[in-house]
Amino acid sequence: MDKRLSVPHECRDFVHSLRMRSKYALFLAFVVVVFVFIEKENKIISRVSDKLKQIPQALEDVNGTDPALVLAENASLLSLSELDSAFSQLQSRLRNLSRQLGVEAEREEEVVPPRPAASPPRRHVLLMATTRTGSSFVGEFFNQQGNIFYLFEPLWHVERSVAFEPHGASAAGSALVYRSVLQQLFLCDLYALEPFISPLPEHHLTPFMFRRGSSRSLCEDPVCTPFVKKVFEKYHCKDRRCGPLNVTLAAEACHRKEHMALKAVRIRQLEFLQPLAEDPRLDLRVIQLVRDPRAVLASRMVAFAGKYETWKRWLSEGQDQLQEEEVQRLRNNCESIRLSAELGLRQPAWLRGRYMLVRYEDVARWPLQKAREMYRFAGIPLTPQVEDWIQKNTQAARDGSGIYSTQKNSSEQFEKWRFSIPFKLAQVVQAACGRAMHLFGYRLAQDAASLTNRSLSLLEERGTFWVT
User: What's the pLDDT at 409?
Assistant: First the structure.
């Protein structure tokens, strides 16, 4: 099937559909047009939700006015500030066109008014991680506090609707889309997610909110509406039966909470968060969670077995070398994490006091102490409710936790990977991720014996990475 985008010559159908969608449908259309022009081909978007297929002819003149979007020969961005400037111009045009079509007024009526000025300072916490780093477990530290509105991986919907290639302008395009959606979510504009949910919500009702049960705020009264037996909810609440998620009720609940926290494994470049860190409405705090890349790979090979068939064949067939493409992907992931952490630890003015680096291994060993440090960094008082949850959920039975469980015997679990991977696999990770491991204080295993010797710690004691 031809997945390239085409621009229709009639606007009548577009105007009708645009009134039914949030501004993000049009916002995403701008991103598509710009990056198609940059790379001179329509391969940036490999999959777009069928709800976003129509782009108006009126947008055709946009792609001739963006000289700031310049690519080097290797398709890397020459200037992030230039990209942000050009993208801001696009957003301005989006707002102007939205006003002309009468869409802006409709959205303003839907958004819940902001909290009163007399309310305590509202803090917004972003838990920034990658998959299999323990982020679901650490996210519960914020999910369990009653005055925090917590969202679990809302950007999953965006990734499923729009697929970008992993490098160059495509990676920048995905980061910009993620950032803009993230900003709206932090402002409790949960309608921003609707264009990315499939099937499209009807009357702001959806039974398809990803992992709804992992957010207490989406499963408590009044967001939990009476259960509707005939409606199948793919991601249902864990401890009670609720009707389809009412996005309006969820947005209202978000505004009522004192603070907001959000977990995301799809935000890779810390520098793209600068506009959010500088937004006075957010008072953003970023907690970057890292884990030993050897442990991460071992966990991913279990949780996402189908994606690691090449690695498994390499191990089972005794081949001398792994495919360079696989090694390079691993190296790129580690370098992305390292570069973001180095930026945060340098404490640029826009991030000063807003960034904290946390190792999962430290959380696993001292969960209550690290929870207190994270809350103190965020400027939010820690409640006994969270402390009780931590005490109960870090002493689970040894065989009582699955790969997605947040119940861990944490002091024993964090080194379990050392006995599940062969030494030659650890060697590949150490070679590809050595710079990141050195930064985060993960020691190299010199041989198979040292890998499985518990008396030899593979962790350097670094205290806290908390940046003040």
Answer: 55
Side-chain-facing half-sphere of 446: CA atoms under 13 Å: 3
**Where do we find the tokens 């180095």?**
342
Spatial distance between the Cα atoms of 19 and 103, rounded to a whole number of angstroms: 6
- Token reading at 334: 């580690």
**Ramachandran assignment for 255, one of left (phi > 0), alpha (psi -120 to 50 degrees), beta (any other):** alpha
Statement: residue 272 has pLDDT above 80:
yes
321's CB contacts (< 8 A; 6+ apart) are none
Whether the Cβ atoms of residue 310 and residue 323 lie closer than 8 Å to each other: yes
Distance CA 358, CA 278 (A): 22
For residue 393, pLDDT over 70 is answered with: yes
DSSP strand pairing (355-359 vs 284-290): parallel
In sequence order, the 6+-apart residues with CB closer than 8 A to the CB of 348 are none
The closest alpha carbon to 432, from 265, 291, 294, 317, belongs to 294
Phi, psi (rounded to 5 degrees) for 96:
-65, -45
Between CA 61 and CA 444 the distance in angstroms is 55
pLDDT band at 167 (very low <50, low <70, confident <90, very high): low
What the block records as the tokens of 49 is 């939700």
> Mean pLDDT throughout 43-72?
34
d(CA 391, CA 382): 14
Using the predicted structure, report yes or no on whether residue 315 has a pLDDT greater than 60: yes
- Global confidence as pTM: 0.77
- 413 CB neighbour count, 10 Å cutoff: 17
Q: How many CB atoms lie within 10 A of CB 179?
A: 20
Distance of alpha carbon 167 from alpha carbon 269, whole angstroms: 12
Question: From edge to edge, which strands make up the β-sheet containing 148-152?
Answer: 148-152, 259-264, 124-128, 284-290, 355-359
Strands 124-128, 284-290: pairing kind: parallel
- Smallest CA-to-CA distance from 206 within 251, 168, 162 is with 251
